[in-house]
Amino acid sequence: MMDKSMVEQQLSLLSGINWDDLQEVERSTTGILQELATHKSLLSQFIAAVETNNTLMELSEYDAVLIKLVLFDDRGIRLRLHIFKDDAVDRAHNHRWTFAGKVLKGGYKHILYSTEKELSTALRYTDLKPVVIRYEKAGDGYCLHHSFIHTLHAEADGVSLIIRGPSLKEKMIILDKDTGESWWQYGAANDLTAAHKKNAKITLEEYKEIVSFLREHNLMDL
Fold first, then answer.
1. Is this model's pTM higher than 0.90 or not?
2. In a domain, 51, yes or no
3. Nearest by Cα to 157 from 219, 107, 83, 221
4. For 92-137, what is each residue's pLDDT tens digit?
5. Main-chain phi, psi angles of 139, to 5 degrees
6. Would residue 222 count as lying in a domain?
7. Domain extent for 74
8. Nearest CA to 74 among 44, 101, 34, 46?
9. Is residue 43 part of a domain?
10. What DSSP designation does 89 have?
11. How far is CA 118 from CA 126, 130, 173, in A?
12. Cα dihedral sign for 116, 120, 125, 130?
């Protein structure tokens, strides 16, 4: 088993790979995610360290669907733990960065879309065409290019790890199926996202509740 410092070193080295090349991303991230998924004590060290790291706490956030706990941040590379809320259905969206993921608990239906229209706030959910529908379950891993629009229909209390690469563009598109709205969401460095669309920061009390949940579900050492 690698120790925490070795994993951090491997994560930092990911800043040197080509995050537009999914094959290279898959080769470079699979071993790290497998190590963390296999060794609960190692993952627990990353989670426990967040409590006293102001930078990681500030980056950790949640929205109506998902809790995002940031476990590592260096040179544009982030390791995040995702916890899905009750039977969560995500809005259709792409990303500013390519990422690799591994499901630790539960699972979700994963839908990837194509569209012939240009990405803009004039784009609507009804303009999207599903091209891949698959089920990601505990133990599964995958990589997703930043250009793809997708949605997740997650089981309640599902948990996954992701490694995200550096931002390759300044904004991402979000499309709401229920309201018909679409909008741009920006990165923190140039955040023009409407205030009511922004995610909320995780408080210390909420962090402690996350830790209790993870221990209860045997995903973290006691």
1. yes
2. yes
3. 83
4. 999 999 999 999 999 999 999 999 999 999 999 999 999 999 999 9
5. 100, -20
6. no
7. 4-216
8. 46
9. yes
10. B
11. 14, 16, 11
12. positive
